[in-house]
Amino acid sequence: MSGFVSGGLGSLGGSAFSSLGGNFAQSAFGQISFSAISGGIGAELAGDDFWRGAATGATIGLLNHASAALGKGQRERIKRLILKDGRLTLREANLWWELGQGGDLNVDASQVDLDFVNPEDWLVGQKSSVQTLLSSRDGRVYGTLILKYLGNQQFMISPDTYDFPSGGSWFRNFANTIGRIYAGKGTGYTINFNGLNTVFHNWWRF
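User: That's the sequence. What structure does it adopt?
Assistant: Structure tokens below.
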């Protein structure tokens, strides 16, 4: 019982301190120290020795910190692999939805297929949304994008959120429902677009 209480309190205390305690709490020393103190208090409450509980709590804190560090390292490796060529595929987008824990992705704007957009229809400085789902090879990744025309066939792409919201048109809700089923459980995240996209309009493609 004492080990259960001290270990549990040490784990919960270390996790709470990590979330609320700023930079010090994110360090290994901060997490392990607070877990040790929480474990010692838990042992005292259970009628056992403080220092035995502190040792149990410190061990739990060390394991939690190692697990979190490993998870972060794995996510960073996955992120580098996803963005290696600057383009985000549907498979990669769903992988980050599942494993990225809401972290941002930065993709190369020039890699997004916007060749369906005709710059002649835009005024310099104009900012509008475009529906890519049925018009772009990347439509299943981005859906609706907000573009700003800078002239000389160049567009800036505003940050986009990868998720599956409801509340739009029936078609969009249907598409998002299918996408959510396909993607499975995950966390929404922001996609930032680095650089500009130079559009070479191909009116005959679609």
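The two ends are 69 Å apart (CA to CA).
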